[in-house]
């Protein structure tokens, strides 16, 4: 039963990771920017939600506030950090360091504002019930899985069916096509940042009500996003989502044989295995340098 | 029969659904300049990338001096005497002009180069000669990224020149040059050919092609449509039509 | 006061070695490692264990720490350098996280969370050099040696090869450079020097635990290199001085509560990294990228 319990826990974590990693992959796919400040979007969304709950506002307001903050941060990074850098140089290194710097800034601001400790938003949804002998599930599990499924369906439809969605995919595959479509790459890159950052919100809110937030969460989310991008195949949205799920499950299952402190290390063992044996990831093309 | 410096047999490459190179055979005759001509996206640069091992072919093989180079990594192929330029130059931007050329001829992957002082002086002499022939001596200490456009183009030639490689693959080395620089470039390539270097030149300017090339291979949408003497190719109305953008249906 | 200054100077020297070694990777070779504190840590634990179990000779400790850190760095370099730069970043971040867990769990090697205590006073060929001024002089000598070695290597063909790879990997390959091997060599060398810095650090602190080898430490060293200026000899040293003096300077500001100094310091160097990348990517001591 422990195994089943851990599997379900893993799926819940994995759903959160999958959404977040998909946002990262969407941004990378469309703009070729390695948006390591993605974790900062996540943290900001989570703390925005926390503030609203502490102020006694109803949860939908909190979610909207989280959404607004995350999207604003993503768009701001695109407009005020990445674009000026790409205007003069735009090497991987420069973009990476700038985004990394912003992650540190956000993390320390949160630390100044909220302290270093964990902060949890209490919720009735997290009350676990015994659904089978030895298997405890809270309603939040179904919320997490449901939200992930619905959002992936929506994002999938958006990318397949709408003009802007097709434009986003074209941007990653063949920028030349864009001109034929009459879409501006600048607007599309803003769209990618908006949408990608919005995808951190469910994960952030769910984390706030379950395991809790702490300032260092931005670095953890950044790691998960990076690892999922690599494991899934760089630039592949489907791959990143699947890899996020995989990492979440592995982190939890490992607890059945090792102590809990090894759980996040296990995720990175998966990462190394992929780098060693399948660097193209689950869905990527050959990328040997 | 002596081996050809470079020949390509049945080369194929697809990128996803796009066929970039299709069943291309190409022979470079020793000591002449062969031009690779074709409209944008014809697959010319991709052929270079396949030859130098930058990307693996889906099918086909590349022979350098008669030896197949399948599966070899780019630096091994380079050390067989294949030197190339890049359409987007790829200079070592934050290094000086001299260091750009010097770095191009130091092959040891260790903390220092073998051969001691004598070998070092020989390398320095090769660098000086290359800078001299490309007119960059006065700019030897400037940073590559700070050079003017034409100077950057000549620096990319200097790197090749210094290697002493006998097979040169030049990817649009003269595009965007002013008439004066273009004339200097033509004479540079001519003297290399006179020294017996085998050259494959990708070039859009047909005047330069007629001036330098002894043979032309004509490519469109990944396939080689024709190969032959410049006069024959450049007088073929159908090829010229394709070249200047009348698409076949 | 003198003691305080000596202390600070020794710390700055140790971090100078560490930052210079990271600069070899980031600045010259264009290899972006966020796991440098791991190799610093391996050097520190090795030096500490050697001193505790066998002999507290600094030179031996530096050698052992450097060799072990360099050897273990190959475990990261060999797989991760075969693929694109983004992978190395991801892999090094992963390694950093795993290593912290390892450091705090492998009690017999690292003493776990409690760390290794009671590191004996440093000696050199049997002579006691635990006097702060003497130890500082020794550290300065090591720093000098490291800087000299880096300067000679980077002005020679090895440096040219690394910088060529940094500026254009595909062109470097096309001109006969064995890129994976050169990069592996750079990682091995950089991490060896980090191990040397670690061994010195162990003697300086007389106690080591995992707190000094976390992601935050890796980021701090990275910030030192980047803010000071990559690919210059002086840049990392400038960065070290600025970032080590920053907490001291902040503590003079009355409106910052002492508990917040760490966060404010991070805020400042995070912001500085971002602003520098927008306005002056070469760092404070680097040449500006003026174009003609
Ligand atoms: N690495 C790659 N991945 C995907 N598609 C590629 C890649 N390299 C080239 N292509 C595609 O292959 C086709 C041929 O490209 P190639 O660069 O060889 O053309 P070219 O003849 O050199 O054109 P030009 O004269 O514009 O330089 C193009 O449609 C291009 O978009
Ligand atoms: Mg081309």
From TrEMBL, chain A:
**Of which family is this protein a member?**
Belongs to the binding-protein-dependent transport system permease family. LivHM subfamily.
Domain of life of the organism in this record? Bacteria
Cite the entry's keywords alphabetically: Amino-acid transport, Cell membrane, Membrane, Transmembrane, Transmembrane helix, Transport
Write out the transmembrane intervals: 6-26, 57-80, 92-114, 134-159, 188-209, 215-234, 241-258, 264-284
UniProt key word Membrane: yes
Spell out the PANTHER family in the cross-references: AMINO ACID ABC TRANSPORTER PERMEASE PROTEIN, BRANCHED-CHAIN AMINO ACID TRANSPORT SYSTEM PERMEASE PROTEIN LIVH
Please tell me the species this chain comes from: Teichococcus oryzae
The protein's name in its UniProt record: Branched-chain amino acid ABC transporter permease
Molecular function terms from GO? transmembrane transporter activity
Automatic annotation (TrEMBL), chain B:
Q: Name one GO molecular function term.
A: ATP hydrolysis activity
Please name one Pfam family that this protein belongs to: ABC_tran
- Which PROSITE patterns would you find in this protein's record? ABC_TRANSPORTER_2
InterPro entries documented for this protein? AAA+_ATPase, ABC_AA/LPS_Transport, ABC_transporter-like_ATP-bd, P-loop_NTPase
- Annotated keywords: ATP-binding, Nucleotide-binding, Transport
Answer yes or no on keyword Lipid biosynthesis: no
Keyword check for Cell membrane, yes or no. no
Q: Which SMART domains does the protein's record reference? A: AAA (SM00382)
Q: Which GO terms describe its biological process?
A: D-alanine transmembrane transport; L-alanine transport; L-isoleucine import across plasma membrane; L-valine import across plasma membrane
Which cellular component, as a GO term, is one annotated location?
A: plasma membrane
Protein origin, superkingdom: Bacteria
Residue ranges of domain ABC transporter in the record: 6-246
Which protein are we looking at?
ATP-binding cassette domain-containing protein
UniProtKB/TrEMBL annotation, chain C:
Keywords, in A-Z order: Cell membrane, Membrane, Transmembrane, Transmembrane helix
Keyword Cell membrane appears in the UniProt entry: yes
- Where's it found, cell-wise? Cell membrane
- Gene Ontology annotations for the cellular component aspect, listed alphabetically: plasma membrane
The yes or no answer to whether the keyword Protease is present is no
- Provide the GO MF annotations for this entry: branched-chain amino acid transmembrane transporter activity
UniProt xrefs under InterPro entries:
ABC_transp_permease, LivM-like
Per the UniProt record, which residue ranges are transmembrane?
6-26, 33-52, 58-80, 87-104, 133-153, 185-207, 219-246
Q: Which CDD domains match?
A: TM_PBP1_LivM_like (cd06581)
How does this chain sit within the bilayer? Multi-pass membrane protein
| Main subcellular location | membrane
Q: Could you identify this protein by its name? A: Branched-chain amino acid ABC transporter permease
């Amino acid at each position: 039963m422990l195994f089943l319990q851990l599997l379900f826990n893993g799926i819940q974590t994995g759903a959160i990771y999958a959404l977040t990693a998909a946002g990262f992959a969407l941004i990378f796919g469309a703009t070729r920017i390695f948006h390591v400040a993605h974790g900062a979007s996540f943290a900001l969304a989570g703390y925005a939600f926390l503030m609203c709950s502490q102020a006694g506002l109803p949860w939908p307001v909190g979610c909207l506030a989280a959404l607004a903050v995350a999207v604003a941060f993503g768009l701001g990074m695109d407009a005020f950090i990445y674009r000026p850098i790409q205007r003069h140089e735009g090497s991987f290194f420069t973009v990476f360091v700038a985004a990394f710097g912003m992650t540190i800034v956000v993390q320390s601001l949160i630390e100044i504002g909220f302290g270093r400790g964990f902060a949890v938003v209490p919720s009735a949804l997290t009350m676990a019930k015994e659904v089978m002998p030895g298997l405890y599930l809270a309603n939040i599990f179904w919320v997490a899985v449901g939200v992930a499924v619905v959002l992936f369906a929506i994002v999938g439809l958006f990318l397949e069916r709408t003009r802007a969605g097709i434009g986003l995919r074209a941007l990653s595959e063949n920028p030349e096509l864009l001109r034929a479509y009459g879409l501006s790459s600048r607007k599309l890159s803003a769209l990618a940042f908006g949408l990608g950052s919005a995808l951190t919100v469910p994960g952030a809110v769910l984390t706030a009500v379950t395991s809790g937030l702490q300032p260092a969460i931005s670095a953890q989310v950044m790691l998960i996003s990076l690892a999922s991008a690599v494991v899934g195949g760089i630039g592949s949205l489907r791959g990143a989502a699947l890899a996020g799920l995989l990492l979440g499950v592995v982190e939890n299952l490992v607890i059945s044989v090792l102590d809990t402190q090894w759980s996040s290390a296990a995720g990175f063992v998966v990462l190394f295995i992929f780098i060693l044996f399948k660097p193209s990831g689950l869905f990527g093309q050959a990328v040997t340098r | 029969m002596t081996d050809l410096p470079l020949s390509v047999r049945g080369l194929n490459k697809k990128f996803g659904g796009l066929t970039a190179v299709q069943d291309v055979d190409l022979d470079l005759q020793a000591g002449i300049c062969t031009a690779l001509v074709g409209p944008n996206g014809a697959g010319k640069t991709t052929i270079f990338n396949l030859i130098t091992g930058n990307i693996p072919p889906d099918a086909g093989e590349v022979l350098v001096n008669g030896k197949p180079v399948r599966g070899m990594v780019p630096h091994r192929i380079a050390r067989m005497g294949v030197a190339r330029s890049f359409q987007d130059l790829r200079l070592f931007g934050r290094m000086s002009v001299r260091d750009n050329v010097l770095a191009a001829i130091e092959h040891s992957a260790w903390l220092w180069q073998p051969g001691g002082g004598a070998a070092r002086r020989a390398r320095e002499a090769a660098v000086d000669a290359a800078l001299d022939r490309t007119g960059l001596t006065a700019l030897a200490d400037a940073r590559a990224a700070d050079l003017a456009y034409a100077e950057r183009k000549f620096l990319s030639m200097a790197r090749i020149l210094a290697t002493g490689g006998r097979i040169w693959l030049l990817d649009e080395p003269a595009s965007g040059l002013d008439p004066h620089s273009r004339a200097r470039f033509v004479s540079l390539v001519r003297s290399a050919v006179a020294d017996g270097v085998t050259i494959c030149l990708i070039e859009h300017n047909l005047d330069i092609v007629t001036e330098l090339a002894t043979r032309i291979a004509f490519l469109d949408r990944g396939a080689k449509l024709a190969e032959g003497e410049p006069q024959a190719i450049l007088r073929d109305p159908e090829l010229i039509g394709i070249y200047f953008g009348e698409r076949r249906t | 006061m003198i003691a305080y200054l000596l202390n600070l100077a020794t710390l700055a020297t140790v971090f100078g070695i560490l930052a210079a070694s990271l600069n070899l990777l980031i600045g010259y070779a264009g290899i972006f490692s966020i796991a440098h504190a791991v190799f610093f840590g391996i050097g520190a634990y090795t030096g500490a264990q050697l001193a505790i179990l066998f002999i507290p000779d600094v030179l031996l400790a530096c050698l052992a720490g450097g060799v072990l850190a360099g050897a273990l760095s190959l475990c990261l370099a060999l797989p991760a350098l075969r693929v694109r730069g983004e992978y190395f970043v991801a892999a090094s971040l992963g390694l950093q996280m795993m290593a912290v867990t390892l450091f705090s769990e492998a009690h017999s090697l690292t003493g776990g969370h409690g760390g290794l205590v009671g590191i004996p006073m440093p000696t050199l060929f049997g002579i006691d050099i635990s006097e702060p001024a003497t130890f500082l002089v020794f550290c300065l000598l090591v720093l000098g040696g490291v800087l000299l070695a880096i300067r000679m290597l980077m002005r020679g063909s090895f440096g040219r090869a690394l910088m060529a790879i940094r500026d254009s990997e595909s062109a470097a390959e096309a001109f006969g450079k064995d890129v994976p091997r050169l990069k592996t060599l750079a990682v091995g060398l950089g991490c060896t020097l980090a191990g040397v810095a670690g061994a010195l650090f162990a003697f300086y602190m007389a106690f080591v635990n995992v707190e000094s080898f976390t992601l935050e430490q890796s980021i701090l060293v990275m910030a030192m290199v980047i803010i000071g200026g990559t690919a210059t000899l002086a840049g990392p040293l400038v960065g070290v001085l600025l970032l080590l003096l920053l907490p001291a300077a902040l503590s003079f500001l009355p409106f910052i509560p002492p508990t917040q100094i760490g966060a404010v310091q991070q805020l400042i160097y995070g912001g500085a990294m971002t602003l520098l990348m927008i306005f002056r990517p070469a760092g404070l001591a680097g040449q500006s990228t003026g174009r003609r």
